[in-house]
Task: structure prediction
Amino acid sequence: MAAVVVAGLLGSLPAVGDDKVDFNQQVMPILSDKCFHCHGPDKGHREADLRLDVREAAIEAGAIVPGNVEKSEFLVRLFHDDPDELMPPAEAKLGALTAK
Result:
């Protein structure tokens, strides 16, 4: 499922298996559950001055780099080996993203 989120944020929603990825049905719920508490519309809870709910803001911050997944900090943080860099952080108790 992490790949679906990344594809949705990068604006390249490829087919996954035989199914097309629907951003609103498949990506937004994951972002809402796992990311928006700290990186969403609520300025009072926003961390690192990073918004992931506004694509343009995420691009401007370098969190996502359309067309270049490897340079997207968003992806790096989802799979980081260092628990201090991994998102979402364990202390948020939101659960890690999984491949499915």
